[in-house]
Amino acid sequence: MDTRTFTVKPVGIVHADDESFSIEVAGPFRPALQGLEGFSHIVVLWWGDRVDTPECRIETACRKPYTRGPETIGIFATRSPVRPNPIALSVVPVVDIDTATGIIRVAYIDADDATPVLDIKPYLPATERVREVGVPAWSSHWPQWYEENPGFDWAAEFTFEE
């Protein structure tokens, strides 16, 4: 087993409240925003700092996180931030980019306010989109496309409470 360790430094922070969502890119990384304008969506890698505990990092399975899912499911078969390394990924629609202030306004992101952002990448259909995808039967009724999410009752799909 590889025992290397890594140092990860945030490139920004999430701002989220009841009305708006944005990512503030730290000053030294603002030049990296050049050329991002024109992309309708970005991929945001963020650190689940609220679950970065020794207990959460040793979790390898969870008990029935999905209403129609199996009784026990491995962490790698979930999008839970509770995992060996609490790295999360979100594809988000870009509303506006202010390269001078480093603010990327997004329509929504499923990260909490003040969540550290590890990296930002453009969403590229040629490398991220897959036409024929297989999923387990318990999740086969979920929307097939991002645009279908607003009309879907996601709250009914999860067994945990906020």
UniProtKB/TrEMBL annotation:
This is tRNA (N6-threonylcarbamoyladenosine(37)-N6)-methyltransferase TrmO. InterPro entries: TrmO-like_N, YaeB-like. Residues 8-132 form the TsaA-like domain. It comes from Methanoculleus chikugoensis.
